[in-house]
Amino acid sequence: MSIVELENINFQYKGSKDGSLDNINLNIEKDQTVLLCGASGSGKTSIIRLINGLIPHYYSGELEGDIRVAGHDVKKTELHELAGTVGTVFQNPRSQFFSVDTDGEIVFGPENIGLEPKEIKARLNDVVAEMDLDELLGRSIFDLSGGQKQRIACASVAALLPDVILLDEPSSNLDFDSIELLRGIILEWKRQGKTIVISEHRLWYLKDAVDRVIYMEKGKMAREWTGDEFNSLSEEEVKSYKLRPVVLEEELIRDIRGESASSFCDAGEAIELKDFYFSYNKHPYLIFKRHFKESDGESLNLNIPSLRIPKGKIIGLVGPNGTGKSTFLRCLCGLERDCRGKISVGGKTFKGRDRLKICYMVMQDVNHQLFTDSVKSEVMLSMIDKDEKRCDEILENLGLLEYKETHPMALSGGQKQRVAIASAIASDAEILLFDEPTSGLDYSHMEKVGMLLKELASQGASVIVSTHDPELISECCDYILGINRGRAVYLKENKKL
Amino acid sequence: MENNNKKLKAKDFITIGIFTAILFAVEFALGMLGYIHPFIVAAYVIILPLASGIPMMLFYTKVEKFGMITIVSVLLAIIMFVGGMGYLGAPLIIISGLVADFIAKSGNYKSFKKTVLSFGIFNFWICSNYFPILVTAESYRKDLIDGGFSAEYANNLFAAINVKTIGILVVLCFVFGCIGAVIGKAVVKKHFEKAGIV
Amino acid sequence: MRLDPRTKLFMVFVISLIAMMSATTPVLWAIRLIITLIPIVLLILEKKYSSALRFFLAYGIALVLLLFFISENSEGIIASLLIGYCGIVVQFMPALITAWYVIRTTKIGEFMSCMQKMHIPDGIAVSLAVVMRFFPTIKEEYSSINDAMRMRGVMLGGGNVLRMFEFRMIPLLFSCVNIGEELSAAAITRGLGGDSKRSSLIELKLGLADYLLMSFLTAATVIFVMYKYFL
Question: In this complex, is the C-beta atom of A338 within 8 Å of any C-beta atom belonging to chain C?
């Protein structure tokens, strides 16, 4: 029996061609687990939004066709009436919480539909036991990592006991271990007989978990495989669809967890780092800030007395979440003022604020670092001598010239990132830092970022990129630097290249 | 769908909450300046409307339903009260919000002129914070001095804000509210419309 | 100790009220001090020692300065700046500490059910809850934007005040609008705004501590008003 029926769907968002749908007919049986894959803008998310009713009730556009979910005619059903039937886990763990505390978030749904307190309590206990969330109860959302937030989001959806669960690129902001946990949750739902629809770029964690795979292309359902067929696709075939790999090699997994070596290889011509110590616990009672030392040991979030990093290369920064990758980048480029590390490169030494002059970090959320109203002025803002010709050159190289006058915020995620990179180049920084540049990107965009990094390095920049993206590492990193518990644990050459 | 569209829904209440938080964050940051010199307290009528014009003009384009501004003013009144800013002003804040709402509604939340006018009126809420200074002038002055403020501060405060100047302040508030709205509209156009957000 | 949110709201009300009526005699000062100490003590009970200590020190220092070193005749720039600082702290700190305590210790769910008990319309309750939830978000977003500005060397907007303001405001608004969209979508798909009456896991109940604190606060207010206006 079909629980989700999409019939002759045509859809286009108001004012945008991206994500539109073209004659979609899709029936999903009860208990099935369906994976939607394909490039960004191919319509995966739109299908998710049709099933949970956000289209047409929340995102407006032109819609033709019929949608039925568990007996509800979605077009005629108010969104809140679907709450007990369809549940959705969204992409961004930062923005899908209404409450500030974890318990409150899990029971938010059941409270909204007006269940008895006793019933709510029972559901809370069930969900917590099923998903092993004891340690996360009673915490503030703002103190959780991305992976922990996503688990709470899953619990919050599950507490409404929906028959259909939708996940919209749920792994985008997660590290390797959190993705494994997410897989566990999905398998548990599958065991309970839920109908699951997942839109996703990262595929390895869904191997053996899905019954049906639908490949979307330009708003159409272009291919369909059964789970078994999909698992047996060869690496080349997967690549030819511009999809991320379905199987990860063991060594890459060790790489990404920062466990693949234990010594430092020769860095050749190097950038030398000295005295990088930092702690987020700032001893609030002391008026004077303490200088951190190596001997502070475990209490430090970053503890790197000295380190040599190859110059003019691409260095992949790996290690589990919360062990100091971002801290390392922030300290390196001088954003953490309390870190007094020195950078020596080409005979010159930079410390304190001067670090900001030779380093430039492209943040994970690039939205925060775009300020002006056109791509051109964004790049010009970074230049010390305003040189319009050079600005055009940079934009040309990054394929952004046609968007010169466009507002940066009107661009797609990948394009915004390139604008940020363009302004990094314009600032003449020698060391370019990237914080998780590819986590939410599809295969071809990830490939593009990889190529771009290579080009930056070939022009002489040193690129340090923190990532949990195995594909990016195998794509472009010359070296791999492992960080664990705030210490640099190894540096090795990436032989894959 | 049509008649349903006029009523505020959950999404709108969330939007209202978000913009109130932003508005308050801006006011809070700027409001702290006031204790440096009393003349800055009087200058709120210029600074605050100009600064809050941008978020508020974006807000006006986001909900476009009756009640949006009234609820903001109710929330502001509550926050101002909790923040120890005075209970005399609260009704005035809500009244200016309500009037501003009616004006904006009469232009269907789309008319440029009505929106500007509406935001000008909305800014009377700033003046309502001066209200206690006026109504209870003598005892308020004594309170300030006994409460630890110097006579110089109190004198300056009353030089800037008294029954004679309040008229000017109200007018300034309105005028700069309108200017703030025009600037805000321009910025919304420059950034948010260009980016396709509104 | 778990206080009922209604007690907390009452406390906010009383403390703002007393903070608004300035203290002029020793008795009034004493009441005001005691009232200010209540949220600090509550913070300690909640094991938020460092915020309690910071509030205590800031308030204490400002108070001492104001009472002993600044008189009616203080003039000049330093005195005026000092008055500015102490003025803010002494005037607003009590309300601020209380608000901080309430926001830090009240869960959104508790708050919503408290609003419902007090017959506040759902819409206003939702908006207020979002305001409470959103301050930390604004702080997070703003500090990321600030980092980006430092990295790009545009902290001063190239010496242009308007740009200084624009560069902070625009990305902040973009972020907040985005987060708001996603937040609403996530909330509505979980049933917010439905016709059924919202229920609550936490059943509010006034306990002994609540009654004690409320009567104490009421008594303090009555004494304060009597001394100030009638004696």
Answer: no
